[in-house]
């Protein structure tokens, strides 16, 4: 019975994450195309995706490399973009922290925006899930995402020269992130953080090496944190 339950949970993870296929394919293809245009070989591009497996950080690194930014700036900027993975890990720990070490290690590697968003939403809806069921669901979520990321990175790199300019594959980037973050705007703090980050990113667009995005991210987090503190103080006075 436990095996059947784990299997059905795994299959549910595949189904729940399947809508992201529509954006992962052009997103990965675009990365492969951009990477080869930036001077990387097909093998280097595929290795980049397999080792880093973080779309936003990969695009950030490529853009900075094309702008001939100092290596230290490329590394620091990519790490800054990927700091959200540390927050994802912290959020997942209460749910899967008791899983076997090898499963946690594999989950750490496979933690991306989509696997985090879909899995945490399911865990919150079904708090009765056991650790094996949670892990089965998590691995189900990444099953259609990660192989497609690898595969279409390769296809985009290998066939990049055949993609017409008019296809405008970059539409997949904002759609992907909008699809992920829209359901997460649950509190005033989330909305304030997003609005402040957007406003600051526009104001800081002229900062060299796209460092304005880092400034915007920090500003958004600070605004969200301050909003939460203000709400807590307001509730305290009301009580």
From TrEMBL:
Q: Does the keyword Membrane apply?
A: yes
Its transmembrane ranges are 20-40, 46-65, 135-161, 167-185, 192-211
One Gene Ontology term from the biological process aspect of the record: L-valine transmembrane transport
Membrane-protein topology: Multi-pass membrane protein
Question: Which keywords accompany this UniProt record?
Answer: Cell membrane, Membrane, Transmembrane, Transmembrane helix, Transport
Q: What is this protein called?
A: Branched-chain amino acid transporter AzlC
Any one GO CC term of this protein is: plasma membrane
- What protein family does this chain belong to? Belongs to the AzlC family.
Organism equals Sulfitobacter mediterraneus
Q: Primary place of residence? A: membrane
- Enumerate the subcellular locations listed in this protein's record, separating them with semicolons: Cell membrane
């Amino acid at each position: 019975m436990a095996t059947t339950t784990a299997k059905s949970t795994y299959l549910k993870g595949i189904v729940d994450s399947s809508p992201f296929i529509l954006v992962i394919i052009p997103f990965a293809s675009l990365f492969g195309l951009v990477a080869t245009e930036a001077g990387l070989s097909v093998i280097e591009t595929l290795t980049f995706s397999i080792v880093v497996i973080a779309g936003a950080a990969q695009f950030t690194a490529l853009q900075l490399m094309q702008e001939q930014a100092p290596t230290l700036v490329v590394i620091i900027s990519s790490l800054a973009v990927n700091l959200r993975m540390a927050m994802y890990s912290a959020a997942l720990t209460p749910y899967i922290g008791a899983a076997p070490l090898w499963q946690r290690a594999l989950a750490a590697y496979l933690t991306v925006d989509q696997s985090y968003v879909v899995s945490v939403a399911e865990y919150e809806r079904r708090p009765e899930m056991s650790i094996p069921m949670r892990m089965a669901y998590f691995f189900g979520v990444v099953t259609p995402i990660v192989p497609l990321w690898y595969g279409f990175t390769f296809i985009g790199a290998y066939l990049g020269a055949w993609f017409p300019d008019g296809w405008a594959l970059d539409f997949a980037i904002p759609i992907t992130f909008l699809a992920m973050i829209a359901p997460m705007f649950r509190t005033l703090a989330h909305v304030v953080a997003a609005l402040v980050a957007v406003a600051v990113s526009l104001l800081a667009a002229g900062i060299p090496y796209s460092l304005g995005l880092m400034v915007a991210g920090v500003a958004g987090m600070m605004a969200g944190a301050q909003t939460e503190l203000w709400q807590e103080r307001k509730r305290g006075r009301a009580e």
